[in-house]
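Re: your question about Sulphur transport domain-containing protein

S., sorry for the slow reply, the queue was backed up all week. Below is exactly what I fed in.
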Amino acid sequence: MEAKKYMNPYLAGLILGLVLLGTIFITGRGLGASGAVKSAVMQTVKTVSPEHYETTGYYARYNEANPSPMKSWLVFEVAGVILGAMFSGIISGRMKFKLEKGPNISNKVRLVGALVGGALFGIGSQFGRGCTSGSALSGMAVQSAGGILTMLCIFGVGYLFAYFFRKLWI
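Result:
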């Protein structure tokens, strides 16, 4: 089976914007992904060490607002994104495991870099009260100054660090 071409990125961006506006109109909230990871971490701590979960202030405050972390709509949203991506990969003939990397980088460096980068982005999303989709895209959709600042920082820091790591990808 020959893989189909990817969707036009401008059309995909327009559709993403319409999905975001529809989500805000229907649910009163924007899209997000890091909140689902946070819910999974909270549920893990709650399951593994319930006494710690109940006596630590951070967890106690989260528990007051979210007594069942895995019943968050963000968890279901991310599950739908994963299933939708798998379905899309299957019907377009691109469903396979492969490691995307530049010619000057080993598999080990690529995987360690992805894990460290993902962890830093996750920590940053908690300091910024949201990730790219939750804080930046959804924030910009409602013309929040914080959302605009978040997007500027994400792209600004990305361009700054791209200079130092560009030879790994070229």
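The longest helix spans residues 107-127. The chain has eight helices and no strands.

Happy to talk it through on Thursday.
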